[in-house]
Write a structure and sequence with these properties.
The protein is mainly α. It has one domain. The chain contains 13 helices and no strands. The protein is globular and about 45 Å long.
Amino acid sequence: MSTSAAPSPVFGIGTALLGFALYAVHDALTKYLGTTYSVFQIIFFAMLFAFVPMAVMMLADKSHGNFRPRHPWLVLIRTTASLTALTCGFYSFTVLPLAEVYALLFAAPLLITVFAIPLLGEVVRAQRWAAVVVGLVGVLVVLRPGVSELSLGHITALASACSNALASVIVRKIGNEERSAVLIIYPMLLAMALMGALLPGVYVPPSLPHMGLMATIGFLSVIAQICVINGYRSAPAAVVAPMQYSQILWAALFGLLFFSEHPDLYVGIGSSLIIGSGMFLVWRESRTAVSARNPVSRTFLARFALASNVLRRSDQPRTSPRESQAD
């Protein structure tokens, strides 16, 4: 019987905050490089450099099985959705203020609640529907349709949020049945293959410092993911999930310091509505007997459990989220 001390929730919160901060640096570097290079080129090289450490970790994964999906159509949909979220998100960061992009991307937890109805059989009751509606009102406040011009960047940010929500819910649905490496490797391979095919038409020879920044983006994505994984290991999902909203603070800071961005009052109000709604959903689901499935908090947990299983480097069976009802 193990006598090791239980992980500290404070440590979990700290590592999660560090991970989300590194993601913010990752996104700021993407914005900087986007003034010189195509999004397709940035993604190709970032994925190429990220693939190396991820491949090493997956090769060390001792879980049995091959790389053939058990749910090929759902894996295909999830892979396509992940690549769509990645590409649209990267593009949005290159053309919109950082804080504005994050405000729209933070709509994903609201969309997870909606997608959980047909995909997870979730019953969403009045209070959570009210939170979704308030959050979507926040999206409209940020966009101000009819008052402010709706650009391609706004559309791609919303497309990224929708795609990310869909991919996350699919992970929640099949994550316990598919090998983790399958759900990690296919999106990376598809990204490199598709971006590599588009690369000849958009390629700009990068300087050595810029190539270093593309490599940094790739490595940061891996390191940030490991930090967030450790956060979810050490603290309840209902505590860790809201930590992602700290990225709006980094976005405002980086935008001000490096890109001369000054988010307006409407972005602030809309962000508050979106973030407040998302935090309410996670808090609501953390209470016992509210929901049998808890789509938002458990979907966050399932998404990072994929890579966590690889990082364990063992063939121990993974515990189903349904076996632990307390957040």
